[in-house]
Amino acid sequence: MSTLTSAHSLWTLAADTPADRIPAPTIEYAQLAPTLIVVGAAVVGILVEAFVPRRSRYYVQVFLALAALASAFAAVVGLAAGGYGSSKAHIAAMGAIAVDGPALFLQGTILLASVVAVFTFAERRLDPAAHGNRVDSFAAQAASVPGSDSEKAAVKAGFTTTEVFPLALFAIAGMLIFPAANDLLTLFVALEVFSLPLYLLCAVARRQRLMSQEAAVKYFLLGAFSSAFLLFGIALLYGYAGSVSYAVIADVVDGTITKIDPALAGTMGNDALLLMGGALILTGLLFKVGAVPFHMWTPDVYQGAPTPVTGFMAAATKVAAFGALLRLLYVVLPGLRWDWRPVMWAVAIVTMLAGAVIAVTQTDVKRLLAYSSVAHAGFILAGVIATSAEGVQSVLFYLLAYSFVTIGAFAVVTLVRDAGGEATHLSKWAGLGRRSPLTAAVFAVFLLAFAGIPLTSGFTGKFAVFSAAAEGGAGALVVIGVLSSAIAAFFYIRVIVLMFFSEPKADGPTVAVPSPLTMTTIAVGVAVTLVLGLAPQYFLDLAGQASTFVR
Amino acid sequence: MENLIALLIAAPLLGAVVLLCGGRRLDKTGHWLGTLLAAVSFGIGVVLFADMLGRGADDRTLTQNLYTWIPVEGFQADMAFQLDQLSMTFVLLISGVGTLIHVYSIGYMEHDERRRRFFGYLNLFVAAMLLLVLADNYLLLYFGWEGVGLASYLLIGFWQHKPSAATAAKKAFLVNRVGDMGLSIAIMLMFTTFGTFAFGPVFGAVGEASEGKLTAIGLMLLLAACGKSAQVPLQSWLGDAMEGPTPVSALIHAATMVTAGVYLIVRSAAVFNGAPDAQLVVTVVGAVTLLFGAIVGCAKDDIKKALAGSTMSQIGYMILAAGLGPIGYVFAIMHLVTHGFFKAGLFLGAGSVMHGMNDEVDMRKYGGLRKYMPVTFVTFGLGYLAIIGFPGLSGFFSKDMIIEAAFAKGGTEGWILGGVTLLGAGITAFYMTRVMLLTFFGEKRWQPTASDSGSAAGSGHEPHPHESPKSMTVPMVILAFGSVFAGAFFEIGERFLKWLEPVTGYSHGNPPVSAMTVTAATMVMLLVGVGIAWAMYGKRPVPVVAPRGSFLTRAARRDLYQDDFNHVVLVRGGEHLTRSLVYVDHSLVDGVVNGTAASVGGLSGRLRKLQNGYARSYAVSMFGGTAILIAATLLMRAV
Questions:
Q1: Mutation test of the interface with chain A: which of B607, B609, B610, B622, choosing the one with the most A Cβ atoms within 10 A?
Q2: Can you tell me the ipTM of this complex?
């Protein structure tokens, strides 16, 4: 080492005082394995697109995606079993990524939800075969103009957009990092890594392609807008603290660090920067969770995107974004609690009420579920605001419960079809319970879980977040939450009434018989919904053990 | 020894489960199994009784804690039993008389195709009733209380194909519900007052509670007793309950279940001793029911309904005695036991008569049956002498003691209560003599039964009265023995008093007149009652069709207009209340609800317009939102 230094010093200018060399970063590859596996599989997936013959790409991609997700989940379980969720929790990758209980719990949730979501991506039996080729929910060739000859040729040739699998894997990788990110730059990079593939995925619907593309463009524009806010917030916080690391910012907020970086002498410790930066970063995250007034993209995008993508996005994005929000509020800004709590109170109240109220007049089942997801974002925010271990526990549990209900519900939506593809207008769902009692019953279970009826996971989750919020002193918030739940129950149960107590229409939709893939998704959704409703204790305990953030 | 207590209940419970779940293959043998298990219960009871006698008076209570029934922090309910002298008395009465009536039912229900089910219900009843008297806390008692209510409902409506039976069962159930509510409120009050509802702790802590609380608990317990024991104002179901098979009337609606109210009051002696006002109400209820039942009994032509009126009246005696406090507790229970013997005997006799008369129940169509049914005549006659208080028989002793105790209450109260009990004794003599004369004496009045007689079997041909089979007469004979000798056995050397005193306490009171005077007065009343009845029904022929009768007779035939009263006040009143509530619901509640729904819908319709599909509008909303968020955050710091 010393000889090396002396050798170098021959041609450095400051020979006497060897300059600070950039140390090689230490990366704990094993602890980052879940993310690395998924990223690796995504890269391999791109290569598959390039080299594997078109005929077998679908099978290779599905296998690759599922294998990657399964081994990533195994890695998460291994890490958790190895104590990284509790005693050995620490910050890895030079302070960029946290490996702790909440991160592992949320990563596990995202991976499980992704597995069932990938099942719906891979579904190819809902539509009749076109020109002898099985078709899935995605455009034959996304690049061809809708209605053009090129599109017809692509359909005729039996092309499929198997790129959705690596795209999904990239998005999942970003989502895995998002709740674990421990500095603001990693947070931003993760945000972009999962957002960009999602914009693309939204654009590739097989049916109603114009609507799908419109949704993708809207999502992209607004997403870019919100990213800009987030980035600006990061800049302000850097100006305030002189660092992008969560731990350092937290210390500066606490007053533990008082040394002022000379380069930032004019801004460091300026609370205005802190407050504005914090608010701007919150804006970026609230956009992702779909909180009012940053929710306006949700109904349009949920409706336009291919339904399997909608389900995936609604579940996994929410998990990742709430994870990042929790870490930001609990690790970076706990010292500012008295500043952000009232503001978040207001956001939660507006979100719950607006989501529930606007959903009342929706006529499209996908838009209905979009507004329902807005209302649910409000309920989860109530748990976030509790600022206690119970709050974290309840939010983790809620996210787990909510993702499976959501993916299951959207999977059911893919089954109800007429000549134009999915029949999402609610009027077409009238009397579905008479013609397809099983499908309608399953959907009813999901709706009841959304409504938070006891014996379903929705009840347990809502009970957990509301009791955490009440213990945290947010009684008024809980009252408004329960009132919104009452309003929300109206439109969920209205759909059940519509399905079971209305006369079926003569030209009503048919219910497609799916392959075992979608069936598995729906069955898992129902099973998780009922298990978390009937015997939630184990999972509540698990979430409770995972509720401590590492700093 | 205490481990046997649970077996007392388990045996009949097993019978109920096996018989009700066993299906058709038990049709041939089920009744034997049911009877055997009731007898096993009685056998265990006798063993426990012998064991209890072997121990000193203060050391006789046995307890058995089976398991914790409801283990909630601060709310412990144990599946625990307590067997003391009071419970023991009931155990022997319930399982003893119960076994006899099982035996009787073998003959009585011989031709019923649902006999197995009948025995299952009877076993269920015995198990529930034993649970009621063995429970060591009020919640478990309540469990048994509801259990006997259920069994009673099932058995009254046993012949459910008859609309009258189905209605009667429903009526009994509904009226009992009112009383049950009283019991549940009493238990809740106990829990809020004492923090527990186990007998020992509650009675131990009575001194710490205010008299107002105790009065409230006492009145609620009384309400419960009124429901179960058919006391005014919840008496209306007992007459209709006679729609059930006669063994049921004998066991449940004469000897055991209807006396549960008396048990409840005597068991809660500590509460009532601390609440004189509640005690006064108890005596008033007892006195009113005593006369009410007696008057109703005088006018009924249906033999079972006449006996039902009598039951009501006799329980009125017991309740009155229980309301007297320590002066009367022992005699309430003593009368309860002797009444259990003679009233069960009388009902079995009535069943025997009906059995021989094609299920005819109208006494005006009997007459002169003593020649045709000698065993029934003799056993019924002995029961009759016992109930009217013929010197030397059971009723004489137990009723006399109650009358004396009523006088011993002292003051104006004592005179009034004593007077009522004396008057009751006279009326009892009258109506029972009437039943006796109409049934067994005079000319035969039966005719070919018309098709409208309501009886399912054998309508259309002349009845051939005959003695009942052995399985029916033997229990009657045994009960007749009890009717004759039980009273004297209890009274000689004050055996019963010494037996129960450790549990219930006893005080002499201050009798204003000597016991001999009271006995003499009772004898006079008895003779007057018998004499009037003889003059009206013995000397003159009895018309087959009932004469119109005086106003009082007509009123008594209609149960003193109790149903009409209930109909006008409760049914009509309830309907009016419902209608006005429905009106309020439609106009006010629905108005508010629909108004809220409409405004939410309107708001929703307006808000959704914000969602106009333009990305630029969405961006503006985000921008505005961010601005507000920042402003609000800064404002929070500023204030």
A1: B622
A2: 0.90
